[in-house]
Structure to design on (642 residues):
C-alpha cells in the first residue's frame, strides 16, 4: 500500500524533437492518500489510460515525477513499482487452471508453495472463485475471467496500488452491478489504494471516495461524488456527470444578479462576479428546476418517461431547459413557468465556475 | 411448426458439385478403377481385385520409399517448425524493418519448385557450385551425386531454405495478433521471458502452429519436383520418396494397376496422418 504523488506530469507519444508536439497529458499534479479509492473519469481520448499507464510504469512520462510513499519511481519498471492492473479485456493465461493463474504472480516471485496455497485460497474465497480452482481458466465467462485478473492483483500482499482500466466493459449489464459492489466491498475490507479508470459516471461515482474528472489531457475537477454533482467547478463536469447533464444557458450578470432571456435569476455565486460579462453561462441541474406559479415562462415541448421520474424538455427563447419531474407531479401543457433553485444555480465564465 | 420446403438452394450448390466432381471425384474414381484391374493396350481390362494392393503393401520397395518419406518429413518438420518459430519471435514488431523482414521472408516462397531445384542443383555441384565447392574447401569431401548422406543433406537444406519462411510468416501473423495487454499483464505479474513464451505466446500460437505443421507435413510428404531436379531420386534409390517411386512405377514402367493402388495407399496414409496431427493438437479443445 502506498500514497501516490504525481508532480507536473506531462506525456506525449510523439518524439522529443518536435517543439509543438501534441500532449496526451498536459500537466497533472495530484496527491493520493494511502488506502483510498480513486476514480479517473472522462470521455474516450481524454488521457486517463495514459495517466494510468504512467502510474503503473508501462509508460515513462516525458516530464514530471511520480512518487510512491516518498520514493521516486518515475523510471522504475512495473515490477519494481509493485503494482497490479486489471485491463479492459480480461487477461488470463489460457492453458492454466484458475488456481495456477492466481498463483502465477507469486510463483514468478519465488514465493514458497505453502504460502502460495494459502494466499490463493484466501483470494479465491474473497472473489467466490473457490469452487472452480481446478477448472481451466479459458472455460470461464467474461466476469469470471475478470475476477481472475483482479485476483492476480490481490494475491500479492505487498502490492502498492491496484489499477483498473475500464474493467467492466465486456461484462454483461446485470453482472456489472454485482461485480461493482463486490469491488467496493473488497476495497473497504482490504483498504488498498485503488485507482479506477472509466468513462462511465455511475461506475466512478459508486466506487470512488474521490473522483478526478479529466478532459483533453487535463484535470478539470477533483472531488467527492457529491461535490462533483452539487458543485461542478466546470461546465464540462456539470454536463458530463448527471443524466441528463446540467442545463447550460447563456446569460448576463448585472449588479450580482443573472439575466437569462430577459429574466432576473437569483444565483449562488452571481454576487462575486466582477468581469466584463463575456462568455457567461448559467448552470443548473435538471433536478433543481421545477414548475412554479410564476417565474421563467416556457413552453413544454417533450416529456420522456424514465420510470420513476420524467424528463421534461421546455423551451425558452430558443434554449432548451431540461428538468426532472416526479411521477406524481402534474405537467402543465403548453405555456408554463419554471423556477431555478437559487442555491443550486451558478454562473460560469468561459466554462469555469465564478468564485 | 411447419418447415418451409424450398429446393431452389440446389441450383446454387450445383456449380460447386460439378467443379468438385471434375477436379477431385472423377479423377479419384478413375484411379480406383485402375487399381482393381489389369490393363493391357487398346483399352482391354481384366478384373484384378485387391491383388495390386497386396502386391504394393508387401513390396520391399514400397516399404523403403515410405520409410524414406517419413524420415524426410520428420527431419524437415523438426527443423522448420522450431526454426520458423524462433525467427518469428526474433523479428521486429514495429518500425521500418518489419516490411524488409517480411519481404525477405516471402522471397523463397515466390520461387517455382523446379527453379528451386535447379538453383540448388547448381549451387551444390562439388566442382563449381558455391555450396559444394565451399564444403569441399573446408575439408568435407562432399558430392551429392555419389554420397547418400550428402544428397539428403542437400535436399533437407533446400527444403528448409524454401519453406521455413511459411512457418515464420504464419507464426509472425499469430504473434502480432496477441493484444498488448497480455504482455503488460505478464510484466506486472513479474513473468520472465520464458514464462511469457510458454504461457502467452505458445498457447496463442496454437492454431497457427497447427496449420503450419499440417501444411508443412502435407507438402513435404508429397514432395516431388525439387528432389527430382536435384538428385532424381538417387544416388541409387537413396532419395526415392513415395511420390518419385510412384511416378517411376506409373510412367517409367507403365504399371498402371500397381501405381493406382499405390496412389490410393499414399493418399490414405497422408489423410490418416493429417487427421492424427490435427486430433492430437486439438484434443484439449473439446472439453
Amino acid at each position: 500500500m502506498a500514497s501516490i504523488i504525481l508532480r507536473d506530469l506531462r506525456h506525449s507519444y510523439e518524439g522529443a524533437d518536435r517543439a509543438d508536439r501534441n500532449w496526451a497529458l498536459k500537466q497533472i499534479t495530484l496527491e493520493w492518500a494511502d488506502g483510498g479509492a480513486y476514480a479517473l473519469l472522462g470521455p474516450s481520448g481524454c488521457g486517463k489510460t495514459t495517466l494510468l499507464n504512467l502510474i503503473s510504469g508501462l509508460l515513462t512520462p516525458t516530464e514530471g515525477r511520480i512518487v510512491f510513499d516518498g520514493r521516486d519511481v518515475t523510471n522504475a519498471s512495473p515490477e519494481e513499482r509493485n503494482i497490479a492492473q486489471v485491463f479492459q479485456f480480461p487477461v488470463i493465461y489460457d492453458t492454466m487452471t484458475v488456481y495456477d493463474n492466481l498463483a502465477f504472480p507469486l510463483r514468478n516471485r519465488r514465493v514458497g508453495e505453502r504460502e502460495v496455497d494459502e494466499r490463493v485460497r484466501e483470494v479465491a474465497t474473497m472473489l467466490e472463485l473457490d469452487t472452480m480452482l481446478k477448472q481451466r481458466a479459458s472455460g470461464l465467462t467474461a466476469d469470471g475471467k475478470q475476477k481472475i485478473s483482479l485476483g492476480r492483483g490481490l494475491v500479492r500482499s505487498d502490492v502498492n496500488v491496484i489499477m483498473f482500466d475500464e474493467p467492466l466493459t465486456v461484462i454483461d449489464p446485470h453482472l456489472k452491478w454485482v461485480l461493482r459492489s463486490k469491488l467496493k466491498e473488497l476495497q473497504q475490507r482490504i483498504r488498498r489504494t485503488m485507482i479506477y479508470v472509466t468513462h462511465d459516471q455511475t461506475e466512478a461515482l459508486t466506487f470512488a471516495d474521490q473522483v478526478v474528472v479529466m478532459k483533453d489531457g487535463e484535470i478539470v475537477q477533483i472531488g467527492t461524488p457529491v461535490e462533483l454533482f452539487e458543485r461542478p467547478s466546470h461546465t464540462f463536469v456539470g454536463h458530463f456527470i448527471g443524466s441528463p447533464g446540467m442545463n447550460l444557458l447563456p446569460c448576463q450578470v448585472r449588479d450580482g444578479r443573472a439575466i437569462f432571456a430577459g429574466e432576473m435569476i437569483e444565483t449562488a455565486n452571481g454576487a462575486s462576479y466582477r468581469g466584463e460579462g463575456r462568455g457567461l453561462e448559467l448552470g443548473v441541474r435538471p433536478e433543481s428546476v421545477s414548475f412554479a406559479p410564476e417565474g421563467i415562462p416556457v413552453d413544454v415541448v417533450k416529456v420522456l418517461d424514465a420510470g420513476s421520474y420524467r424528463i421534461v424538455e421546455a423551451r425558452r427563447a430558443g434554449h432548451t431547459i431540461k428538468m426532472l419531474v416526479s411521477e406524481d407531479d402534474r405537467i402543465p401543457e403548453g405555456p408554463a413557468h419554471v423556477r431555478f433553485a437559487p442555491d443550486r444555480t451558478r454562473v460560469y465564465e468561459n466554462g469555469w465556475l465564478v468564485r | 411448426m411447419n418447415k418451409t420446403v424450398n429446393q431452389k438452394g440446389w441450383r446454387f450448390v450445383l456449380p460447386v458439385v460439378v467443379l468438385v466432381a471434375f477436379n477431385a471425384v472423377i479423377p479419384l474414381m478413375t484411379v480406383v478403377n485402375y487399381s482393381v484391374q489389369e490393363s493391357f493396350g487398346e483399352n482391354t481390362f481384366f478384373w484384378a481385385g485387391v491383388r495390386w494392393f497386396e502386391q504394393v503393401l508387401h513390396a520391399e520397395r514400397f516399404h523403403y520409399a515410405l520409410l524414406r518419406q517419413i524420415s524426410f518429413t520428420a527431419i524437415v518438420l523438426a527443423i522448420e517448425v522450431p526454426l520458423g518459430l524462433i525467427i518469428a519471435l526474433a523479428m521486429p514488431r514495429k518500425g521500418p524493418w518489419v516490411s524488409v523482414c517480411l519481404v525477405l521472408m516471402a522471397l523463397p516462397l515466390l520461387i517455382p519448385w523446379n527453379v528451386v531445384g535447379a538453383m540448388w542443383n547448381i549451387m551444390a555441384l562439388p566442382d563449381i557450385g558455391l555450396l559444394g565447392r565451399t564444403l569441399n574447401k573446408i575439408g568435407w569431401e562432399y558430392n551429392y551425386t555419389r554420397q547418400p548422406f550428402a544428397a539428403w543433406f542437400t535436399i533437407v537444406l533446400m527444403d528448409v531454405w524454401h519453406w521455413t519462411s511459411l512457418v515464420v510468416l504464419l507464426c509472425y501473423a499469430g504473434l502480432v495478433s496477441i493484444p498488448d495487454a497480455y504482455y503488460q499483464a505478464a510484466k506486472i505479474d513479474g513473468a520472465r521471458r520464458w514464462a511469457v513464451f510458454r504461457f502467452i505466446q505458445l498457447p496463442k500460437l496454437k492454431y497457427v502452429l497447427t496449420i503450419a505443421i499440417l501444411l508443412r507435413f502435407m507438402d513435404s510428404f508429397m514432395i516431388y519436383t525439387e528432389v527430382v531436379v536435384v538428385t532424381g531420386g538417387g544416388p541409387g534409390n537413396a532419395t526415392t520418396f513415395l511420390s518419385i517411386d510412384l511416378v517411376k512405377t506409373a510412367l517409367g514402367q507403365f504399371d498402371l494397376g500397381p501405381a493406382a493402388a499405390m496412389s490410393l495407399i499414399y493418399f490414405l496414409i497422408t489423410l490418416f496422418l493429417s487427421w492424427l496431427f490435427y486430433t492430437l493438437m486439438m484434443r484439449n479443445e473439446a472439453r
In short: Chain A has nine helices and 21 strands. Chain A touches chain B at residues 56, 58, 77-79, 83-85, 87-89, 91, 93-96, 104-105, 108-109, 136, 139, 149, 152 (CB under 8 Å). Chain A has a mean pLDDT of 86. The CA atoms of residues 42 and 214 of chain A lie 5 Å apart.
